[in-house]
Amino acid sequence: MDKIILDAEAIRRALTRISHEIIERNKGVEGVVIVGIKTRGIYLANRIAEKIQQFENRSVPVGTLDITLYRDDLVKKTEEPKLKGSDIPVDITNKKVILIDDVLYTGRTARAALDALMDLGRPSVIQLAVLIDRGHRELPIRPDYVGKNVPTSQEELVAVQLTEIDGKDEVAIRHRT
Fold it and tell me: How confident is the model at residue 88, as a pLDDT?
């Protein structure tokens, strides 16, 4: 049985808070580029960019990052990785890049994203924003912005559903079967 930990309104509030924190920490949005990690990070990145536009009356570039070829667990996942491609509309060199992902768990996805970003340019700073931080880090990676900290066991899964692909906004904890 799923335990709902964030409903649509709670997700909206978390993204609003993260957006304000990004503006505050970076003293505005000059030089900020928001990059969503495929797949759900892209939709969260777009929502955060929209909120920043509302608050600052200024748009920020939004890009997508495909980390498929940078994953260290690729052999376990699939024989033939499907590269969906990264698309960042500006040069990230000397920019403040905000990486966006849905769930931070072991840190391996974030590490892969850092590797992928460094192949595209040399940002002045990289910050990490996640909707859910569930703990269990295997690497020394810490998010700069967190929607919600959710202590979990390793037998549990955190399922993020977003309207853009799942038809509803919800975060639930599920037990592995």
Answer: 95
3-class SS string, 116-175 = HHHHHCCCCEEEEEEEEECCCCCCCCCCCEEEEECCCCCCEEEEEECHHHHCCCEEEEEE
Structure tokens of 67?
Answer: 């980390």
Domains and their CATH numbers in the chain: 3-175 (3.40.50.2020)
Question: For 7-21, 34-48, 83-97, 108-122, which range has the lowest pLDDT when averaged over its residues?
Answer: 83-97
Q: Residue 164 corresponds to which tokens in the numbers above?
A: 């853009």
Closest Cα to residue 38, out of 100, 96, 89, 93?
A: 100
- State yes or no: pLDDT of 85 exceeds 80: no
Q: Which is nearest to 110 in space by CA: 97, 121, 99?
A: 99
70: left (phi over 0), alpha (psi -120 to 50) or beta: alpha
pTM of the complete model beyond 0.85: yes
Instruction: To the nearest 10°, report the CA torsion of 60, 98, 40, 174.
Output: -140
How many CA atoms are closer than 13 Å to the CA of 96, on its beta-carbon side? Answer: 14
Contact by Cβ (8 Å): 64, 164? no
Is beta strand 125-133 parallel, antiparallel or unpaired with respect to 145-149? parallel
pLDDT in tens, 26-44: 999 999 999 999 999 999 9
